[in-house]
Batch of 4 targets.
Target 1
Amino acid sequence: MAEKKTDIVKMDVSKYEKDEKGRPIIPDDVFSSSFRMLPDGCINESRNMVSSKGGYLRMLVKNDSWSREVRSKGGDALHAKFVQRERIADTIDRWLKQPNKDHPEMTNQDVMVASMMQAAQDGNVRAAEYVRDTVGEKPVDRSETEITGATPAQMALITNVYNRLQGAEQGDGASDRFDAGAGPARIADADGPVNQPENA
């Protein structure tokens, strides 16, 4: 005949104070000796254990040696995982340095660059842009900027910096200047018009 399982009578915890989350705070010695009879959600006085389903769960707390050990093991495991997982960039870099199977005297990178150069010579615009950008000649995108509400001193500084940059870019020191005294101004692309609204 099978033995009938009896339910454990839960302890009355209404006499104990509650923490800020409404959990009854049970003295450590009572918690340790009777955690099986505690209702779920009771916390011990040391605030590192909480009753759950006839047992208890250990909580990570700031100055607890067990918590430090768990955090340390978790950190070590995460670090090992990152070390084990190679970055995609590292894989690509290694592949680029390997000898090419069709041209063993060249690396994969050499073959890739040669094929891009050939495509650019054959008129492929995207390949030509890639080659141009790779050698550092990508044109700078200059957006139109409106300057309003600046003091005369700020406008003078902006004018000076803008004209110096334009001169350095054009090589003559005098390209595409604008007048700070003209009021609110718009700095446009060097090749485009300078649009200056009328003063209010």
Target 2
Amino acid sequence: MKEKKKRLYKKQHIVIVAVLGVISILMLFPMVWMFFTSFKTNADIRINRTSLWPEAWTLEGYEKAFTDVPFVQWFFNSVFVTAAVTLAVIITSTLLGFIFAKYEFRGKDGRLLSFWPL
């Protein structure tokens, strides 16, 4: 019968995971702040700048975003630019990958200059 190996975590691993967890929470905080701010009124944003929770919940910002500005046009412009850039990166990366794989050139073995002792 095979014995299950117990996985022992070193204290270093636990500290690293804890530090990375705190950093990720700190990185997510601005997005959470903007999410809750999007439900505030303009007056509430000006008066209660440090309050995360809105005093009065409203969808006024979302209504303005979809009615006062050409949001749909901006969205499709963003999609077009993203698709064009992605296509350009795929094409150029494929061509450069072929060149790196097919042809010999100085520095291909990982040394940039021939006198470096690598």
Target 3
Amino acid sequence: MSVSERIFKDPAVLQDARKDTAVLQDARKETTAVVQDARKDAGVLQDARTDRRIGAILVEQMKLTSEHVAQVLDAQRATGSRFGDMAVQLGLISADDLRRAIADQYDLPYLRPENRDVNSELVVTSQPFHPCAEQMRALRSQLLIRWANGGIRARMLAIVSPGRHEGRSYLAANLAVSFAQLGEPTLLIDADMRRPRQGRIFEVDEGVGLSAALSGRATLRSAVVPLPRFGRLSLLPAGARPPNPLELLSRDSFAILLHELQREYQVVLIDTPAAEPCADAQTVAFRAGGALVLARKDYTNLKATSRLIRALGDAGASVAGTVLNSF
């Protein structure tokens, strides 16, 4: 007698088989229910992650409760005002709370209220809608387009100009911040070891910096300062002023340092001394491979600018463009 014949002829065996089948069906139902619950939980989690409405952000930041949200929604429906504006009118949040929530909603770090306290020279952060800030973002877009069209991945530029007081440090700092605000891992290097300014602009300690890294007195990692309040930005300050800046920049150690940094950052901008009094700027531009030439309106000599562009070409550095500083 086969197994199947015995099952159908023996009632006890048939009853046991039915019980086993029922248990298996219950297990399948339970498994299906667990999977469905898990999918629901995953859907709720996904909704929470993708819900970037102002109300949800303010609740996440513990500025509003669910009862507050309901109160604002009722008032909003009656007046047609925006949610955030109505929450401020009802006194439930401050204007700074709303500003911070909007910054998180659109991933715009420069809209955070604490950025009003930064150095006024960082106009893209302290005054993000100032005409100069708009021009900085326009310059950023032009560079990105040029790099994309040229298939350039090594995005490294020296910021150079013929003389002093033409705005190199100002341009380098604001352009670096604008790239960081875009989400690009950005490094700003202050290679002006004669009259460094980036440490003062960003208000960081310049005790350890480029000069220490090039002379072997500090590691590169210890010299770089992260600046998360400005987005994905880091600063390599000039450090203590050395007696031989040109020699330090001319050594192979500087080229090796730049090569290491290119692997970690998508954009590297280098502030330089005035080009006419010394050869530092040409040396840095040669090591970087490219330069952005700056001239100041009604101040920079045209012949000096032309001489600098020719000198950069002779040094083997390509000129990515020229910028006229009219501010």
Target 4
Amino acid sequence: MIKLKKNKVYFIGEIGINHNGSLNKAKKYIDLAKKHKIDAIKLQLGSAEKFTTIENIKRYKQRSRTDLSKKQINNLINYAKKRRILLFATPVTHDRVKFVAKKFGLIKIASGDINFLPTLRAAAKTNKQTIISTGASSLIEIKNIFKIFKNKKKLILMHCISSYPTDIENANLINIKYLREKFNVHVGYSNHVLGTTACEVAITLGARIIEFHFTDNKKRAFIDHKISLEPKDFDILKKKSEDIISSIGKKRLKQFACEKNFKELRKGLVYTKNLSSNYKITSSDIDYSRPQKDFSFSEKNKIVGTKLKKNVKKYFLVRKKDFK
């Protein structure tokens, strides 16, 4: 089960079928993810005939070729455990939901199934933590999720735009905050925008779980590679995420510790002319200037009417030691 924290972003590298059906390639992605400190790797599992019609022969063959066997999946699960990285999957066909729940203990539901009751109901029955992407959905469809999933503590929504790639102006990241406040659940972000900018903004808007397509080479032919982050891209994102969270900080109640020299910026009191010892201060003898030392600008009336015990100079700060 994924546990989210306010001061840390949980990163999911979606390799989907980028492994192209190769067990060794999938292991390479797990190794890369571990090396670069990605928190989890996610697969896509589904039977070809339930994923797409055989009339779509190119995609049907692709799914047939890349659908990992149970033996391969068990191998990857054991490999990920040894590498100490979470591995889980999206059942892109409804016949794989129970299998995914049993093998991984965590379910991710793709945007395309947000209104597909067989998958939603099967996932809800498992009572496992479920992450649901909201791409291409309506607000009514998102509301309907909560009629099926009763335990909000085990549900995470992911704001997502189902456009590949998504232009930055279409990211609509305000929905991260909107959905969180609307449904009172954790809301993360599943990215299809090229680069890391959208992910960074999502983090500033409160997303503490970020999913992105992950590859070793964005120049590979399949579209998922094009919209993926390479390890070097993720390194940048991770560092920026840490800086973003550090920069959020705490609410202002008083001066922060790093503002210890704040009085240098505040207005204090200065003399408007040279004055002699025993002189009684009038209002016109005092003006304001930085810095604030012994007296704030608001303490002028404390000075008016008092007598000097020493000579003072024009435009010098008013000091406590100047008075009897």
